[in-house]
Amino acid sequence: TVFNDRHFSCENCDGCVSGGFDAATSQIVLCQNNIRQQSHMNRVVTHELIHAFDHCRAHVDWFKNVKHLACSEIRAANLSGDCTLMNEIARFKFGLKGHHQTCVRDRAIRSILAVRKVSKETAEKAVDEVFNACFNDLEPFGRIPHSKADAKRAYRDFQNRDRYTANL
Predict the structure, then answer these.
(1) In a domain, 32, yes or no
(2) Domain for residue 155, yes or no?
(3) What is the number of domains present in the chain?
(4) I want to staple 28 with a disulfide (CB 3.0 to 4.6 A). Which of 22, 48, 50, 82 is the partner?
(5) Which residues pair with 30 in a beta bridge?
(6) What DSSP letter does each residue of 41-91 carry, written as one string?
(7) Mean pLDDT in runs of 10 for the chain (168 residues)?
(8) Contact status, residue 113 vs residue 74, Cβ threshold 8 Å
């Protein structure tokens, strides 16, 4: 169960970080001084909730295993809307074939470098080693939610997941 007053914290943050997941307290931190729009906050909350989901499901070793961190960052970038076409256009990054994967990879590397003191080469290697498995892990959505309507469909599918397997 998630409690707003216990599991979410709004704070002023340094730099251009928009939020984070604190594994020690199981708390999502939203950087109130760096989030200017509701849509941005929605993406940050979704991104950090994916980290919280991974923390509960996969027992991620956030501090000692950079591959664990890389996997969660790949999943969060892939599933949170960080790499939508509109966000990429706003960042002046264009491309068609394979661009979503490129964006997810780049954002995962940037996130690792923002939270860990590792070299860019170490972050790139960790991301590359786990990319395919983690990019294809779509839990808890079952699909990449490309729009708000698609996210609602994914949530409805999630709510009804037991109906599909109950008769097997």
Answers:
(1) yes
(2) no
(3) 1
(4) 48
(5) 10, 19
(6) HHHHHHHHHHHHHHHHHH---TTT-HHHHHHHHHHHHHHSSTT-HHHHHHT
(7) 81 88 91 90 92 91 94 95 69 70 92 93 97 93 79 80 63
(8) no
* pLDDT at residue 14 in the model: 84
Convert 7-24 into a string of H (helix), E (strand) and C (coil). HEEEECCCCCCCEEEECC
pLDDT at 78: 93
Question: 15: which 2 tokens?
Answer: 């730099």
Burial class (CB in 10 A: 0-12, 13-18, 19+), 78: buried
Structure token pair of residue 99: 């661009």
51 falls within a domain: yes
| Residue 78, domain extent | 8-148
In the residue annotation, 48 being an active-site residue is answered as: yes
Return the pLDDT at 88: 59
pTM: 0.85
Q: How far apart are CA 131 and CA 134, in angstroms?
A: 5
- State the pLDDT at residue 70: 97
Question: How far is Cα 98 from Cα 9, in angstroms, rounded to an integer?
Answer: 36
Strand 27-31 relative to strand 19-22, pairing: antiparallel
Number of H helices, E strands in the chain: 8, 3
Residue 82 token pair: 């960080």
Instruction: Name, in order, each residue with C-beta under 8 angstroms of 6's C-beta and a sequence gap of 6 or more.
Output: 27
